[in-house]
Amino acid sequence: MKALVTGGAGFIGSHVADRLLERGYHVRVVDSLQPRVHPKGKPPWVRPEIEFIHGDVRDKEVMRRAMEGVEIISHQAAYQDYMPDFSTFISTNATSTALILELVVEMKLDLRKLTVASSQAVYGEGRYLSPVIGEFEATARPLAQLEAADWEMKCPKSGRSCENLLLEERMQNPNNAYALSKLFEEMTALRLGKLHGIPATALRYSITQGPRQSLYNNYSGVCRIFCLRLLHDEPPIIYEDGLQRRDYVHIDDVVEANMIALFDDRTNYEQYNVGSGRATTVCEFAQKLIEVMGKDIEPRIPGEFRVGDNRHSVSSIEKLKALGWAPRRSLEDIFRDYIAWIEGFGDLGEYFREADRLMREAGSVRAAKAGACSGASGEGKTQDATRS
Ligand SMILES: NC(=O)c1ccc[n+]([C@@H]2O[C@H](COP(=O)([O-])OP(=O)(O)OC[C@H]3O[C@@H](n4cnc5c(N)ncnc54)[C@H](O)[C@@H]3O)[C@@H](O)[C@H]2O)c1
């Protein structure tokens, strides 16, 4: 029984690889050890019994070797960052998926399942309910609105505030290169899979958190950023007003969803959200983390925002729950497991200084205009580094 996990040195891929080893699989991993994720090379959690191929998922010869004799493929490798090299998103995430299918056909592989890691990002700003025009697909909030520290989504016709809707699999509204690449990735897997009789499933993960998230890559998200700051007795810095609603799911729940996707034939040619089933504001997230870490620190809300951040992103998980899956870990479990992991690293100063530098260098953080943020004197409630 051979399984291939692409991106298997990364956060989610390495946990999926471990679970497949436990199930008795011979696990092969192909990973390019992307320098922004693994600046120190192959991470120590890649177990010695894994057959490791250091290579790129875009390279046909590497993939031909990696796919030899496998019966399942979990495609987790991806380019995910805030960088402007749009074509890298498409080639790494979407073209690689097409290459996998191309090789399944060419090699006449008897593949039992291909799963692809999609993302809540495919929903973009999602959908809202306006009292005037009903349900509508939201677009990015105008810069002038954000500069005026006016954060909620408005009805395009009346300008009135609207109700954010839970994200359901029927929707899609990608608004950046990463999100587009993820939508192409899942459609390629599901549509070409169906056409050629290659069972495929796409999982749209919400913000996944847990041990082994890259400590370097800025895309790794809010848990890392807030934890690192708090460990250095610095307040978490919250963007906008901290009332953005997010969906944080524990890595173990995501791994279990992957097992269902890989081994339950009812998932063939379908996509599923994998989330926590609850909305958490960034403020709540920061406050709970502070409590768990036992710190006497108030988060800061300096009135900054990140260009391109969505206002709210919370997924409906009913479709996957109907197959017997359910998220079982709480926010506290996320914090406990993550903190235990990063505390093993010793001095963490270098990690958070570097990540902050990279994000500011990319020019993605802006400030609302002076005076626009009532009460945002720098003290207050929250922020987020959205990630999905
Ligand atoms: N972590 C999340 O919150 C989240 C949310 C939504 C979707 N996802 C998706 O889940 C998957 C796993 O994400 P993660 O958080 O584990 O990321 P990660 O960065 O920890 O892991 C990705 C791995 O892919 C490897 N990789 C990158 N480009 C490659 C290439 N061209 N060839 C071979 N390997 C390459 C990297 O070296 C890394 O080890 C990705 O597809 C991501 O888009 C993650």
The gist of it:
The chain is of the alpha/beta class. The chain has 11 helices and 16 strands.
Rounded mean pLDDT score: 91
H-E order = EHEEHEHEEEHEHEEHEEHEEHEHHHE
CATH topology name = Rossmann fold
Describe the global form.
globular
Poorly predicted runs are: 374-388
- Approximately how much helix is present in the residues? 25-40%
Counting structural domains, the number is: 1
Question: CATH homologous superfamily?
Answer: NAD(P)-binding Rossmann-like Domain
**Sequence of strands across the biggest β-sheet:** 3-2-1-4-5-9-13
User: Care to count the β-strands?
Assistant: 16
Bound molecules: nicotinamide-adenine-dinucleotide
Radius of gyration: 21 Å
User: What's the tally of helices?
Assistant: 11
Strand content: 15-25%
Report the structural category: alpha/beta
What summary fits the major beta sheet? 7 strands, parallel
Which oligomeric form is depicted? single chain
Q: Could you name the CATH class?
A: Alpha Beta
End-to-end span in angstroms? 31 Å
CATH architecture: 3-Layer(aba) Sandwich
Give an overview in words.
The chain is built from eleven helices and 16 strands. By secondary structure, it is α/β, with parallel strands linked by helices. The chain has a single domain (2-367), classed as Rossmann fold (3-Layer(aba) Sandwich). β4, α3 and β5 (113-119) form a beta-alpha-beta unit. The protein starts with a strand and ends in a 21-residue tail after the last strand.
